[in-house]
Amino acid sequence: MEVAVPLPVRRRFTYLWPEGAAPPLPGQRVVVPFGRRRLTGVIMRAEVKEPDPSLRLREVERILEAEPSLPPVVLDLVRFAADYYVVAEGEMLRAALPAGLSAAGREPASIPREDVVTLKAPPEMWEEREASLGRAPAQAAALCLLRKAAGRMLRQDLRRERVTAATLRALLARDWIEILHEPRQPHAPASLPELTGGAVKNLTGDQEIVTARLVTAVEQREGKTFLLQGVTGSGKTEVYLRAAAAALKAGRQVLILVPEIGLTPALASRLARRFGDLLAVLHSGLSGTQRRAHWDRARRGEARVVLGARSAVFAPLADVGLIVVDEEHDSSYKQDESPRYHGRDLALVRGRAEHCPVVLASATPSMESFQRAVQGKDTHLIMPRRVHARPMPRFEIVDLRREFREVGRAKLVSRALESALMDIRHHGGQAMLLLNRRGWASFLLCRACGDPVSCPSCSVSLTLHKDRRRLACHYCGHEERVPPRCPCCDHEALQEMGAGTERLEDELATLVPGLRIMRMDADAVRRAGGHAAILSRFAKGEADVLLGTQMIAKGHDIPGVTLVGILGGDAALSFPDFRAAEWTFQLVSQAAGRAGRGREPGRVILQAFRADHYALLRARDHDYAGFYADEDRFRRALLYPPHAVLAAVRVRHRRFDAGEKLAMHLGDLLRADPDAGEHLRILGPAPAPLARLRGYYRFHLLLKSRRRRRLTAVLRRLADQLEKKGRQGGHVIIDVDPVSLM
After folding, report:
1. Is the domain of 533 the same as that of 508?
2. Tens digits of residue pLDDT in 462-515
3. Within a domain: residue 578?
4. 287 part of a folded domain
5. How many angstroms separate the CA atoms of 703 and 691, rounded?
6. Which among 163, 189, 188, 151 has a CA at the least distance from the CA of 290?
7. Nearest-CA neighbor of 96 among 74, 128, 76?
8. Same domain, 405 and 526
């Protein structure tokens, strides 16, 4: 029998099956000897046959489970992903299994038998009860945590969040919670809930047409892909939730993916109102115990709807009837570290295997998904109007070049945006301001020698965080005190350059006195208890303005927001990446879509120096088709997706010269491959745009081809050679379908 172990080795290992044991099953976890170590492996091939007497095989030491952790369809997905992304099956299994099940050499965790705290009220009452506890902030915080976790948390996880026993006793006395002892006996729900909690009563005409098509696809088990493209505020979520209800009524399960955990709490609350105890949540923001509990509920069939981020594509559901990939364009679906898989693309593979429809939902689809739809390879469902006949927001672009000439100095907030914020202050409404740079200043510059204060481990300048008087690297995490003099020339002339969210917050307080301001960026989120806590307070009207980085732009539906300001909306256009215009168009469009989702019409003010760039003009006009046509001409001419497939081969080395030599050697190997030539373009090697990161010098090669099979064959042969000959002291990374070339 063949076992995959959690190591970066692209092969399986053969072991003897213990005599007298029940026959092995693919997907079972076992403990196997590996050199001097003991590793937790997964059986990939369970055929037992007489061993070759010339081989000295070792025996499986322990069988960890009678039933496989992974159903066959998920095990097949793991095999496919390992082959497609040219990584070891063991590494892919580590992504597929929750912590504790994939850990090497650990005793497997049993199904948790711990106290579980649950909310007793119907989900629609959770926020109301939380809001009523203004004079009991500890109890309100506990309810907020439980609400974000879909109404149930392990008591020990609440303890880690500093929820005391006294707080729980107070909530028990109110009869608002109950404490259960897990595990409950495995069971499938005896009957389905009504599946209409929190549902919109009257659909628009667009919603009715699209819902009918998706429900038909679910009922007929169509293994097709549907691109659900609807403008922001068109009601896409309600459409796919009704399709999900149809899948549940047909006795099947539902998988819903979101790109980031910041989007999970709001959607989890909505799904909890609709589907009750049938919901399980899977994402990296949960503790290992929480994630394992939800994962086990899905595997046992107790949870019929799984909501999660990228890795939830491997959820142990046995019979999936619908897969939804919300905000399918988002780059967060691609994992940065090994194994570098794309959650959306694996969702498409799983949908074909499960014979179920896959819905890709977005207001700004990726170029690849849009091309497949317009070519007729996927079904294109379009929702061009907002619900309740609400108009799209009025959108204006402030040209900062003209603003600078007329005002005579650079201002963080333009005159138009300042005036609009004054209106918010005096006449009501709420505003969201997007500035996609956190910190106070982008960097400190020495006016004497011209050098910025830089990170010692990365080729980037350090960002000033004024509130704690520290300089920080947002790549490696390095921090240091603000130096009194230039580290390069010892001059005192250090000047703050650029602006981030901290400085914007400070300037707004001076510019518009009395404006209540909240900030949401990575620093504020850590202090304030997470995305959900900040958004909940803002939605309740506790602030007039929410300013932050790109995390405020995605998927939030706050009816009171009438103004969106986008500062530095053209910043990403300077990135040395072919997707820069696409990212800019998507971010601006998504941010603009937060305005005017309530009764009052919305307004968007975008500040940019490159005010005439087509990505900004098309976003202003809410014209996706026009943007696609503009961008497609560039992609086609230079052979970039969707007109080619890409792979990046990256080298990391502590020494520049050795890293450069290794990269040159890899370039020679690739160009000598029999499949290289006119159908495969190889660019580089060259230093990466971020030439040094976390102490490693970085080089990359870019491979382009119109033929997927040819590219994959070249990459597999390269990986085989690297395993045989070693990496000469460096790290070599193969990234198939890279999202970022930085």
Report:
1. yes
2. 999 987 788 999 899 899 998 888 888 888 888 888 888 888 989 999 999 999
3. yes
4. yes
5. 19
6. 151
7. 74
8. yes
